[in-house]
Amino acid sequence: MTTFPPKDPGAVLDYGVDWSAWLAEGESITGTPVVTADGLTVNPPGKSTVVADGVVTFWLGGGVKRSLCAVTCSITTSQGRTDQRSFSVPVDKR
To answer: Which uninterrupted H or E stretch holds 66?
Structure first.
């Protein structure tokens, strides 16, 4: 599991998951659910997930100080393949 630098509870930050090396030639990402349980908000108001060149970029807001939040980015591709990547985001005052 990848760990990212600490995120302040008041920050709204973008995170990217690069799938480009995993995709077959001509294959594209058609579905991108991102889930978290631990108090983070995926795509707070005014933010949305974007897919460009095989990279899924989404936004995280909120979180509880002194917590380690698990986030999972799952994809579906134009060839019907599915996969997911999970990582941790530590939340603390910065």
So the answer is: none
Q: Where are the domains of the chain?
A: 2-89
DSSP state of 69: E
pLDDT band at 86 (very low <50, low <70, confident <90, very high): very high
Q: What is the dihedral of CA 80, 81, 87, 93, to 10 degrees?
A: -20
What is the model's pTM?
0.90
Q: What is the pLDDT of residues 38-70, one digit of tens each?
A: 789 999 999 999 999 999 999 999 999 999 999
Q: Please return the burial class of 15, using the count of CB atoms within 10 Å of its CB with bins 0-12, 13-18 and 19+.
A: middle
Half-sphere exposure of 65 (CA within 13 A, CB side): 3
**Interior angle at CA 55, CA 49 and CA 19, nearest 5:** 125
Structural class in CATH, domain 2-89 = mainly beta
